[in-house]
C-alpha cells in the first residue's frame, strides 16, 4: 500500500500570510522545494523571502492575484511545480480550481473536486449528511427562492430562524429573524451579502439555536480508505460569527461523547470516499450534535489539534496528497493536555475596523508551551487588501487552568506597535470569569462585548 508513492519535489503555494509561511516550513522539513506566488502588495513578505522561488502573479487585490487561476497555473508551469497547495481561503474550496489543477497535470493538495462541490453548497451538504445518519439542524429542504417562501418556511420551522448563504462561510450572508416581521429584511440582507461575498445569492434556512457551542471535528483520510479522527475544537468564542478564540479539546465534552461522535463522523467520511484533511463543524446544544457544514480544507485553527495530538497536520496532508498512506491509525491518537489559539487581527479592539499600516516594533511572546504562527515582523507593512489576520498565538499546557494562565502571560508579552490589534480584547477574554469556568456559548462574546470593552457595567 503506497509502494509507488513518490514525494513531491516542488510545491507551489497559492496563498499568502501566516498560512503560506506555515506551508513553506512544512515543505522545508519534508525536503520539498517551494514556489510562492504573490501579489504586488506582498512582494516583501516573509513567505516570499523564505520560499525557494517566487512569482508575482498580479496586482494588489485578491481578484488580480490570489483568485487569478490562470496566472497561478502559468506560475506552476514555468517553475515546474509538481503540486499546488491552496492554503486557507481564496481558492482552497473552489471546485473549478481543483479541476484546473488536475487538468494541467498538477496534484491538488486537497480533496477531490466532487467533494469540494458536495460540501460547498451548504444545503446539499446537509442533505448528504442526513443520508449518512448525522443529525442536522431543522430547516428548509433546499434553497429559498422568494420572500413568500421564506416566511412560509420560517413559520413551519419555528422562530427564531437563521437565513444563510448556500455558498461561502466566515459569518457572511447570515441573518437571524426572531419573528414574522423580521423575515423579509433578513432574507433580502442575506441574499445581498451572499452575492457580494461569494458571487451567488442563493440562501437556505435553519432553526436558530440560541445557546449552542460551536464544536468542530478534525478528520484526515488517505487514498486507501483509511480515515482517522483527530479530536475536536471548541470555537464558540466568536464575534458576529467570526472565530477569534479556539480551544482543544472542547472543555464540556466527555470521553464517551467524543468517542461516539468521532465514530459516527469517521464512518460517514469513509462512506464518502473522502481524501485529505477536512473539518466537520457542528452545533452542540442539550447534549445533541447538529451538523452545520464541512470545510474541505486546512483550518486556521488546525494548530491546537497539532498541539494536543503531536501530529503535524500540514505535513500529513502533503504526504496523503503524494499518495502515501496515513502514518498513524486511530488507536495511535491520544489527546494530551490543553491548547488555546488566539487569532491576532489587525483591527481596532474597540471598533473592529481594520488597521493596516507599518509595524514599527514587533516582539512575539515565547517561553514554554508558546507558539506563534505569523508572517509579520518589525518594519512589515500590513496591506489593506486582505483579511485582517496577521498571526495566531497558540498556547499549550497540561491542564486547561494552566493553559489559560499561560495565555494571559503570553498576551501580556506580545508587542505589536504601529497598528492596532485585538490583543487587548483577548486579554480581557482570558480574564473573564465565564471563560475561566468554561461557561460560554456562541453568543457569549456578542452578549458581553460592551462589558469587556468598558462600554457598560456588569
Write structural notes for this entry.
Helices cover 34% and strands 25% of the residues. The chain is of the alpha+beta class. The protein folds into three domains: 100 residues, 3-Layer(aba) Sandwich (Rossmann fold), CATH 3.40.50.20; 70 residues, 2-Layer Sandwich (Dna Ligase, domain 1), CATH 3.30.1490.20; 240 residues, ATP-grasp fold, B domain (D-amino Acid Aminotransferase, Chain A, domain 1). The strands form five sheets. The protein has an eight-stranded antiparallel sheet with strand order 13-12-9-10-11-14-19-17, sandwiched between helices. Strands 3-2-1-4-5 form a five-stranded parallel sheet, sandwiched between helices. The protein has a three-stranded antiparallel sheet with strand order 7-6-8, with helices on one face. Helix 7 packs across helix 8 and helix 12 packs antiparallel against helix 13. The longest helix has 19 residues. The chain is globular. The model has no long low-confidence stretch (mean pLDDT 95).
Mean of residue pLDDT? 95
Order of the strands making up the biggest sheet? 13-12-9-10-11-14-19-17
How much strand content do the residues show?
Answer: 25-35%
Structural domain tally:
3
> Which parts are unreliable, with pLDDT below 50 for 5 consecutive residues or more?
none
Radius of gyration: 21 Å
> Can you tell me the CATH superfamily of the largest domain?
ATP-grasp fold, B domain
- Give the CATH topology of the largest domain: D-amino Acid Aminotransferase, Chain A, domain 1
Largest sheet: 8 strands, antiparallel
- CA-CA gap between termini: 60 Å
CATH class of the largest domain: Alpha Beta
Per DSSP, the total helix count is 15
Number of strands: 20
CATH architecture assignment name of the largest domain = 2-Layer Sandwich
**Helicity, in percent?**
25-40%
The secondary structure category is: alpha+beta
How would the global form be characterised? globular
Amino acid at each position: 500500500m503506497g509502494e509507488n508513492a513518490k514525494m513531491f519535489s516542488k510545491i507551489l503555494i497559492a496563498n499568502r500570510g501566516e498560512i503560506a509561511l506555515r506551508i513553506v516550513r512544512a515543505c522545508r522539513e519534508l525536503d520539498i522545494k517551494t514556489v510562492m506566488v504573490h501579489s504586488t502588495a506582498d512582494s516583501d513578505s516573509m513567505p516570499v523571502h523564505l520560499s525557494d522561488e517566487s512569482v508575482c502573479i498580479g496586482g494588489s487585490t485578491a481578484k488580480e492575484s490570489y483568485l487569478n487561476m490562470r496566472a497561478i497555473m502559468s506560475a506552476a508551469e514555468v517553475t515546474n511545480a509538481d503540486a499546488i497547495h491552496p492554503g486557507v481561503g481564496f481558492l482552497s474550496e473552489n471546485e473549478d480550481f481543483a479541476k484546473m489543477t488536475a487538468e494541467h497535470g498538477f496534484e491538488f493538495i486537497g480533496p477531490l473536486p466532487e467533494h469540494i462541490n458536495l460540501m460547498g453548497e451548504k444545503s446539499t451538504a446537509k442533505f448528504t449528511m442526513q443520508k449518512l445518519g448525522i443529525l442536522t439542524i431543522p430547516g428548509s429542504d433546499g434553497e429559498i427562492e422568494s420572500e413568500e417562501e421564506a416566511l412560509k418556511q420560517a413559520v413551519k420551522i419555528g422562530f427564531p430562524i437563521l437565513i444563510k448563504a448556500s455558498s461561502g462561510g466566515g459569518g457572511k450572508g447570515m441573518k437571524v429573524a426572531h419573528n414574522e416581521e423580521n423575515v423579509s429584511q433578513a432574507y433580502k440582507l442575506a441574499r445581498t451579502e451572499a452575492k457580494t461575498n461569494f458571487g451567488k445569492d442563493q440562501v437556505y434556512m435553519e432553526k436558530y439555536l440560541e445557546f449552542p457551542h460551536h464544536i468542530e471535528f478534525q478528520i484526515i483520510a488517505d487514498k486507501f480508505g483509511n480515515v482517522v479522527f483527530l479530536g475536536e475544537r471548541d470555537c464558540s468564542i466568536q464575534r458576529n460569527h467570526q472565530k477569534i478564540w479556539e480551544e482543544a479539546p472542547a472543555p464540556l465534552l466527555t470521553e464517551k461523547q467524543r468517542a461516539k461522535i468521532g465514530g459516527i463522523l469517521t464512518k460517514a467520511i469513509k462512506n464518502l470516499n473522502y481524501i485529505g484533511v477536512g473539518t466537520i463543524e457542528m452545533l452542540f446544544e442539550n447534549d445533541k450534535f447538529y451538523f452545520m457544514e464541512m470545510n474541505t480544507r486546512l483550518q486556521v485553527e488546525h494548530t491546537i489539534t497539532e498541539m494536543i495530538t503531536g501530529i503535524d497536520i500540514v505535513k500529513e496532508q502533503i504526504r496523503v496528497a503524494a499518495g502515501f498512506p496515513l502514518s498513524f491509525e486511530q488507536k495511535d491518537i491520544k489527546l494530551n493536555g490543553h491548547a488555546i489559539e488566539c487569532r491576532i487581527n489587525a483591527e481596532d479592539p474597540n471598533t473592529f475596523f481594520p488597521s493596516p499600516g507599518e509595524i514599527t516594533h514587533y516582539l512575539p511572546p515565547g517561553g514554554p508551551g508558546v507558539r506563534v504562527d505569523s508572517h509579520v515582523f518589525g518594519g512589515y507593512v500590513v496591506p489593506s487588501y486582505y483579511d485582517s489576520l496577521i498571526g495566531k498565538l497558540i498556547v499549550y499546557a497540561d491542564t486547561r487552568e494552566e493553559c489559560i494562565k499561560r495565555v494571559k502571560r503570553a498576551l501580556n508579552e506580545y508587542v505589536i506597535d504601529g497598528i492596532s490589534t485585538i490583543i487587548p480584547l483577548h486579554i480581557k477574554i482570558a480574564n473573564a470569569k465565564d471563560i475561566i469556568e468554561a461557561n460560554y456559548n456562541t453568543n457569549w462574546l456578542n452578549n458581553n462585548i460592551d462589558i469587556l470593552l468598558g462600554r457598560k457595567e456588569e
